[in-house]
Amino acid sequence: MSAQTASPAPAPEPAPAADPWLVVIDPQRIFADPASDWASPFFGEAMERIAALAAHVGPERTIVTRWLPTADRATAWGDYFRAWPFADVPASDPLYDLVPAAEGLTAHPLVEEPTFGKWGPALAAAVGAAPGETVDLILTGVSTDCCVIATALAAADAGMRIRVAQDACAPSTSTDGAAAMQVMGLFAPQISIVQTAEILEPGGLEP
């Protein structure tokens, strides 16, 4: 009786891609209150789109960050706070609270950093980005031309795949926001610029 050649085992199906993480950068009173020197005139409309995205993605896939004024004043951060003395208050000051519209967006602890860019060990751990692994991120928040761009570039350098939801980001001015988007657009394909409606449409969560 002749031996029969066994049929090769079928190749395993690739694991389905995980849904992206929505990262809401610094939705705080200091950037929303019209009386603040750092208020963005676009904050309200950006928050409306952030709320829609968070409802679409869900609180389990949403991370909210908060900027805290706790950097070492012996470094160049001392110069920064001398330039902006109104912001040189304790982290417990109401200026640094989340705006009411940001409460409840996430089921996870806040990622709090004293740096413009929020990408670092805490955010990487929050989205489960193991070394050598790419995670898809949708960035929103404030301000486009400071903390959003700083987060996007650092995350792209770390190997993440970034979509910046342009109309869910609040720039300090329209001119500075456009400049930041132009710079981030230079980093394709790691960074892509999209609109909220593109993400909300069927299949829009896929990278």
From TrEMBL:
Pfam families: Isochorismatase
Classification via SUPFAM superfamilies: Isochorismatase-like hydrolases (SSF52499)
GO MF term list: hydrolase activity
Protein's UniProt name: Cysteine hydrolase
Database matches in InterPro entries: Isochorismatase-like_dom, Isochorismatase-like_hydrls, Isochorismatase-like_sf
Domain annotation Isochorismatase-like: ranges: 21-192
Keyword Hydrolase: yes
Keywords per UniProt: Hydrolase
Classification via PANTHER family: ISOCHORISMATASE-LIKE DOMAIN-CONTAINING PROTEIN, PEROXYUREIDOACRYLATE/UREIDOACRYLATE AMIDOHYDROLASE-RELATED
Top-level taxon of the source organism: Bacteria
Protein species of origin: Brachybacterium equifaecis
